[in-house]
Amino acid sequence: MLTINDILKSVKFNLTKERRQRILDAYEFSKKAHAGQMRKSGDEQIQHSLETALNIARVGMRSKTISAGILHDVPEDTPITLLEIEEKFGKEIATLVDGVTKLGKIKLRGSQEEYFLENIRKMFLAMAADVRVVIIKLADRLHNMRTLEYLPEEKRVRIAKETMEIFVPIADRLGIGEIKGDLEDLSFKFLDPENYQYVKNLEEKQYQKIEKYVNETIEELEIELKKESVKIIETKGRAKRLHSLYSKLKQHDMDINRIYDLAAVRIIVSSIADCYEALGIVHKKYHPLVGRIKDYISLPKPNGYQSIHTTVFGPEGKILEVQIRTKKMDDEAEFGIASHWIYSKQEKEGWKKYFLKNKKNHPEKEVAWIKQLREWQGELGKDDEEFIDGLKIDFLKNRIFAFTPKGDIINLPEGATPVDFAYMIHSEIGDRTMGAKADRRIVPLSYKIKNGQVIEILTSKEKKKPSQDWLKFVRTSNAKERIRRKIKQE
Ligand code: MN
Q: What does the pLDDT read at residue 470?
């Protein structure tokens, strides 16, 4: 059983009296609100809130995000309202909790087309607006995945699929390798239990054989690095993640002997210069495999990942991968976007500083997904300056997102109808509208579209004109204007 002390012990920042009290208050409040509620696993509901908070604390998030994590299920599952949370904990925490509640309403639908999935991911990020909301949601999902076995079979598969298709790519894009890897392996376990078990057994067996060489390599390299006075911060050995191993095996006829990074040694040093220095020392000690040196320091991966990887003939000619990086790169690889809070002094300024710094000095390093998100938000009419502020904003609060049957996202104000939707696609489609379906069911044209619904507009082949009545219920000025204009023309 987790206690609030476990959370307090895992925070990675300086816990002032005030911050400590904030977390404790959130705990007391949430515990009281959830009193008597049980999880399918037989645990009390508050355990889930604490586990979520622990996942958040572990990636380096601060007291407000942790507190919001403890409170994340309160408005949804208890009679306590968001307003009460705001009164007690302030606007910022309430907005985070509200964002998590809203994201919970997005569900993966039938379509598995990449285009469609990509739009859901975008919608997810755009709706979250504040990246801390996404981190809380990932932490929540991680604990739900860890307790998935207690749910009925068909729910298990649906949730595991959703995790694999939506949450894993998002965690990856945010660069949170730690959470991404856990979510991916847990989904794999439920989606493909046979192969999961096969790979798990295979890895255990193989890793056992090689573990002794991993430890030997660490010892030998530590001696060499010390000789050359390269300061080592940490060295560690690691086995490859299961799903990642499985993907690689499939590319190599399921032949484990062709996987060179099943075991890796990681060397963490204090500066970039030391990374290259260490690479030279590693290669002097062990012969490198030709063409297997990957320098992600000078050329980071799209999600910002930085490290040097090299494959060498280690002790007794055993093939091993050696990864070299700085402490900051290591934290970034595990905690991703969240690590920028660790490296900045003030919680509020963390993201802003990171963004400005990257924009001004290293535009090329701006991670791809941020660019994407900026473009996406740009489409909604926000410029850069506002976008920065927008990480805490609520301009999406009164907006809903609906899909076309092809997976395009149409952004509408709350209360919008199929007629608004139709005119948003094209004025021609608006004029020809005869009927509409929401999630494959016929609905009236005055129907209020709900977030995440697939809307299909039924049009007439003959020229049709809009009805005067539509003006009574349309919400967007775009639709109103076009209807009026068309009626006048007639
Ligand atoms: Mn939850």
A: 95
Write the DSSP string, 162-201: HIIIIIHHHHHHTT-HHHHHHHHHHHHHHH-HHHHHHHHH
Residue 287 confidence (pLDDT):
93
- Calculate how far, in angstroms, residue 48's C-alpha sits from the geometric centre of ligand 1: 7
- What's the pLDDT tens digit per position in 173-185? 778 888 999 999 9
| 11 pLDDT above the threshold of 80 | yes
More confident site: 255 or 337: 255
Please determine, for residue 201, whether its predicted confidence score (pLDDT) is greater than 60. Answer: yes
How much distance in Å is there from the Cα of 117 to the middle of ligand 1? 23
Question: Does residue 477 surpass a pLDDT of 60?
Answer: yes
pTM of the model: 0.74
Instruction: Please give the distance, rounded to the nearest whole angstrom, from the Cα atom of residue 31 to the centre of ligand 1.
Output: 14
* Per-residue confidence (pLDDT) for residue 8, from 0 to 100: 96
Closest to 333 measured CA to CA, from 304, 311, 353, 309:
304
Query: Measured in angstroms, how far is the CA atom of residue 178 from the centroid of ligand 1?
Result: 19
Q: Encode pLDDT of 388-415 as tens digits.
A: 333 333 334 466 778 888 777 787 888 8
Expressed in angstroms and rounded, the spacing between residue 244 Cα and the centre of ligand 1 is 27
The conformational region for residue 439 under phi > 0 = left, psi -120 to 50 = alpha, else beta, is: left
Place of tokens 């899909």: 403
Q: How far is CA 209 from CA 202, 203, 206, in A?
A: 11, 10, 5
Active site residues: 76-77
Q: What is the pLDDT of residue 3?
A: 96
pLDDT score at 298? 85
Task: Give the amino acid at 433.
Answer: T
Residue 350, CA atoms < 13 Å, CB-side half-sphere: 21
CA 88 to chain centre: 28
For residues 21 and 25, give the distance between their C-alpha atoms in angstroms, rounded to a whole number. Answer: 6
User: What are the φ/ψ torsions at residue 147 (nearest 5 degrees)?
Assistant: -115, 20
Strand partners, 234: 268
Q: Which long-range CB contacts under 8 A does 167-170 form with residues at least 24 apart?
A: 167/137, 167/138, 167/141, 169/117, 169/121, 170/121, 170/124, 170/125, 170/134, 170/138
| Alpha carbon of 21 to ligand 1 centroid (Å) | 23
Q: How many A from CA of 339 to the centre of ligand 1?
A: 23
Mean of pLDDT values over 86-93: 95
State residue 458's pLDDT score: 94
Give the three-state DSSP class for 259: coil
What is the set of domains in the chain, with CATH numbers?
4-190 (1.10.3210.10), 193-336 (3.30.460.10), 397-489 (3.10.20.30)
What pLDDT, on the 0 to 100 scale, is given for residue 117?
73
**DSSP 8-state class, residue 299:** S
